[in-house]
Design goal:
The chain is about 45% helix and about 20% strand. It is of the alpha/beta class and about 100 residues long. It has a 4-stranded parallel beta sheet, sandwiched between helices.
Length: about 100
């Protein structure tokens, strides 16, 4: 099962987006594990992650996190602010799945 991590400042608003993404995955019969974590937990999750998405509030760390994730073969991207703000879990799930597909 693929593991998607959403990293943000504290994990609060991102948890709501995770629930929407899980609903979308369930309705489409896609088996993925989706978890929200604070960006400060990056070092603990990198070896378990298949893809990492960053919330808009930590987008400024995209370059450093991408560089740290590259040796592990883990793609990293920022979540579009509009998709995040409107909690479009289906579209954010599509983004994560696309990153997974391109990484293989």
């Amino acid at each position: 099962m693929k593991k998607i991590f959403l990293c943000c400042a504290a994990g609060m608003s991102t948890s709501m987006l995770v629930e929407r993404m899980k609903q979308s995955a369930t309705s489409r019969n896609i088996e993925v594990e989706i978890t929200a974590v604070p960006v400060s937990d990056f070092d603990q999750i990198i070896t378990d992650a298949d893809v990492i998405l960053l919330g808009p509030q930590v987008k400024f760390q995209l370059q450093s996190i991408s560089s740290a994730a590259a040796p592990h073969g883990v793609p990293v991207a920022a979540i579009d602010m509009m998709l995040y703000g409107s909690m479009q879990g289906d579209k954010v799930l599509d983004q994560a799945l696309s990153l997974l597909e391109n990484a293989q």
